[in-house]
Amino acid sequence: MKKFLVPVVALAALVLAACSSATPGEEAIKMVEEATEKVEKVQTLEELEAVGNEFEAKFDEMEKKYPDYKPSAEEEKAMDEAIEKFQEACQKKAEQFVGDLLGDGDDAGEEE
Fold it and tell me: Which phi and psi (to 5°) does residue 15 adopt?
């Protein structure tokens, strides 16, 4: 799972660091939120990986489209929150799939 999350977080950080108007920042936040919704609906590990690959490709496109974008402090905060929710959704699904593989049942990953 770390292998999946590291590139996603790195790409999001690059978009924020590389990206000059509020529109690209809002687009990036919306993409993260949409990816989170998709992650919450996936039923298999393969679907989770596909969502991650799609998300990564979209961020690559944004980075190329807005290479000089500088997000506002408000956008950075919103992006951090969106990424945190995305990571939590990915972690929860990954734990669910691992639990299913190991036969741990529905309670897998609920301990913190």
Answer: -60, -45
